[in-house]
Amino acid sequence: MILGLDHVQVAIPSGGEDDARAFYGGLLAMTEVPKPPALAVRGGCWFTSGSAVLHLGVEDPFAPARKAHPAFLVADLDGLRERLETDGRTCVPSDGEIEGVRRFHTTDPFGNRLEFQQA
User: Fold this and answer.
1) Residues 25-29: contacts with CB within 8 Å, 24+ apart?
2) How do 113-118 and 92-93 pair as beta strands?
3) CA dist 8 to 43, 47, 90, 98, 109, Å?
4) What is the CATH superfamily name and number for domain 8-118?
5) Which residue ranges make up each domain of the chain?
6) Where is the VOC domain (predicted)?
7) Helix (H) or strand (E) holding 17
């Protein structure tokens, strides 16, 4: 019945688009894609990288997702961790919990939990 996953949506606070672009577009090197005009008026922004599609939608009042999270597959987990830590982000390793998968968690500028993993 289900053929795949189109996108994951994560909430951001009103006015958070510039911080989102700096983090997701700059630090994570994702590509911003334009939202359709009918949706652009709601704020937020969309990003893609490889097969990952992330929609950031404005939520008011905003509360960060501390448990629910997207998990991104990456080619260089150590390099990404170093890049995030250099930017002042705390990365919590979760190695060994899933056989054959190295991973860690961090948060975006809004406190939303993110997972990055490499087989």
Assistant:
1) 27/83, 27/84, 27/87, 28/80
2) unpaired
3) 16, 10, 23, 22, 17
4) 2,3-Dihydroxybiphenyl 1,2-Dioxygenase, domain 1 (3.10.180.10)
5) 8-118
6) 4-119
7) helix 17-20
Q: Which helix (H) or strand (E) holds 18?
A: helix 17-20
* Cα–Cα distances in angstroms (integers) from residue 113 to residues 27, 39, 40, 87, in the given order: 16, 25, 24, 16
pLDDT digits (tens, 9 = 90+) for 84-110: 999 999 999 987 788 889 999 999 999
Q: CB under 8 Å to 116, separation ≥6 — which residues?
A: 71, 72, 74, 77, 80, 81, 103, 104, 105, 106
User: For position 29, what pLDDT does the model report?
Assistant: 97
The parts of the chain modelled with pLDDT lower than 50 are: none
Round to whole Å and give the CA distance between 112 and 50.
21
Bond into 34 cis (ω within 30): no
Instruction: Find all residues with CB under 8 Å of 49, minimum gap 6, and list them.
Output: 28, 29, 30, 31, 72
CA distance 92 to 100: 18
